[in-house]
Amino acid sequence: MTRMLIMGPPGSGKGTQAARIADKLGIVAISTGDIFRHNVKEMTPLGVEAKRYIDNGDFVPDEVTNRMVADRIAQPDASSGFLLDGYPRTAGQVEALDSMLKDSGHALSVVVELTVPDEELVARLLKRAEIEGRADDTEDVITHRLDLYHQETAAVIESYQDRGIVTRVDGTGQVDDVTERLLQAVYSVRA
Ligand code: B4P
């Protein structure tokens, strides 16, 4: 039963790789960013609240995000395992996830960290801006998201490193090659 996290800075390929890895492992990929964007598009109360944070590149408050994730992982399709993409991003979210997992009687199998140099991250996100036009892919907001990542989320990864469950994977190069490296990393932990 795989319960794993994919972590890394904005633009490191989390969303791209999460779908591929979850498909290979036969588990569901849950992306907090995708759930927020869907709610923003549908203009749900959650979306209206989340939009002002997302557009500025800020984190949506923990209380809102934690409740959303708890509801999502309680759904039947997550009962046989899941891959979380973009969560947890703060110390408060780590604590909340720990208690969700404790309640379910399962532990995290592995945390994979995608590493990509900052210059390449910015280039990728600016390229995506040309294609998708996401409101949070402007240069200023990208810089702010990267700063937030280094200030808050890097410490989250360190806290998992202290538990000895983090595997670092080089996120540069062709998408297929990164997928292959990630699968090798996951299989080596499960073996
Ligand atoms: P996310 O949706 O998680 O956005 P992201 O960090 O930019 O990652 P994403 O998955 O989109 O990009 P990827 O690296 O796959 O979060 C968006 C916002 O939602 C946050 O800023 C925050 O406001 C809010 N939010 C989400 N989770 C939250 C939480 N837990 N708590 C609070 N707030 C939260 O890909 C980027 C680009 O790179 C793509 O265009 C892709 O095609 C390209 N790419 C991927 N792999 C590549 C490769 N190997 N080579 C070249 N390009 C590649």
Throw out a few tags for this protein.
single chain; alpha/beta; Rossmann fold; five-stranded parallel sheet; 61% helix; globular; cytoplasm; P-loop_NTPase; ATP-binding
Could you please describe the fold and organization of this structure?
The protein has 191 residues and is an alpha/beta fold. It has one domain: 3-Layer(aba) Sandwich (Rossmann fold), CATH 3.40.50. Helices cover 61% and strands 14% of the residues. The chain has 8 helices and 5 strands. α1 packs across α8, α2 packs across α3 and α4 packs parallel to α5. The model has no long low-confidence stretch (mean pLDDT 95). It binds BIS(adenosine)-5'-tetraphosphate. The site of BIS(adenosine)-5'-tetraphosphate has 28 residues, from α1, α2, α3, α6 and α8. It is an enzyme of class 2 (transferase).
**CATH secondary-structure class:** Alpha Beta
Distinct small molecules = BIS(adenosine)-5'-tetraphosphate
Question: What oligomeric arrangement do these chains adopt?
Answer: single chain
Uncertain stretches: none
Strand order of the largest sheet: 2-3-1-4-5
Number of distinct beta strands? 5
Question: Can you identify the CATH superfamily?
Answer: P-loop containing nucleotide triphosphate hydrolases
Q: Could you estimate the helical fraction of the residues in percent?
A: 55-70%
Shape: globular
Strand content: 5-15%
Named at the architecture level, the CATH assignment is 3-Layer(aba) Sandwich
Examine the coordinates and then state which fold CATH places here, giving the name of the CATH topology.
Rossmann fold
Radius of gyration: 16 Å
Give the CA-CA distance, first to last residue.
13 Å
Order of helices and strands: EHEHHHEHEHHEH
Binding site for AMP: 32, 37, 58-60, 86-89, 93, 134, 145
Function: Catalyzes the reversible transfer of the terminal phosphate group between ATP and AMP. Plays an important role in cellular energy homeostasis and in adenine nucleotide metabolism.
GO molecular function, one term: AMP kinase activity
EC number: 2.7.4.3
